[in-house]
Amino acid sequence: xxxxxxxxxxxxxxxxxxxxxxxxxxxxxxxxxxxxxxxxxxxxxxxxxxxxxxxxxxxxxxxxxxxxxxxxxxxxxxxxxxxxxxxxxxxxxxxxxxxxxxxxxxxxxxxxxxxxxxxxxxxxxxxxxxxxxxxxxxxxxxxxxxxxxxxxxxxxxxxxxxxxxxxxxxxxxxxxxxxxxxxxxxxxxxxxxxxxxxxxxxxxxxxxxxxxxxxxxxxxxxxxxxxxxxxxxxxxxxxxxxxxxxxxxxxxxxxxxxxxxxxxxxxxxxxxxxxxxxxxxxxxxxxxxxxxxxxxxxxxxxxxxxxxxxxxxxxxxxxxxxxxxxxxxxxxxxxxxxxxxxxxxxxxxxxxxxxxxxxxxxxxxxxxxxxxxxxxxxxx
Length: 380
Known about the structure:
With 380 residues, the chain is mainly α. It contains 22 helices and no strands.
């Protein structure tokens, strides 16, 4: 069911500022709106508009009625007529700021800027401008507006959250944390501040500080896949593998576990030497995986089978990973097991030879391994 929107509230607040006497009976119009009789309201307003075609109140009522009747063409027409009469009209600029919010942020900025000029002490307009500028990747400019919104109304969690989020983007964790901490003092269950606390702590490697807000979000059953992954990874990086598994299981039960959650649960089981459970989860990952991540799961399965001394299965998974994703390191791993564990030098040589032809070693360890293999098996 449609509700009377913020546009109508703004419109009603402007009635006393209209100089001309409105031909429309406000009580009649409000009754139409409250009963959601927008077509009847339009018929009535079009008739009354004939007595004063430039009356801002009537034009605003018409714009709102058409908007609520899902007739954007006519809604735009009447709100534009209001701007033609008064370019700083609050309800019309509010309408177009919202109308272009998603489809044309640059255009929405024009109307939002007018709202700021007309209401320089209203924090919500500065935050709206910040949101628009951030969306078009003008983060330095967005910061200026978020800063002003926060100065005007620091107790509004939306202002603090928007500014803290951008401060984290700028790696200014100290100031971001001060805003987040103050917000959580006011409301310890604020979802956005809990999310930001997790993000800030995770990015600086303070994994222990992720745990408490993370457990709260898990208990509340809210959060994004990124946030949940940061919680799980924090337990994993703290080597709290049983807790990592516990959290992954909870997320799974709540239907909030994605590919990465199953992956780190599998890695945790591997760390606890429970390879069979790890492999089952990795196979689940493979069923969910998109092409650019499936390689990790095949490689992890290979690692597990190698730890279990099931070398042929390990080679099969490394070989599959190479076949699908063409990473030469998979060839090296196959050769390494054949050479070092299965003592099959001839088979190892085939993998190593192909590895030498295709490899582009980047890390120091890989360069050392490459040079060793090249000297031993390479063709001069």
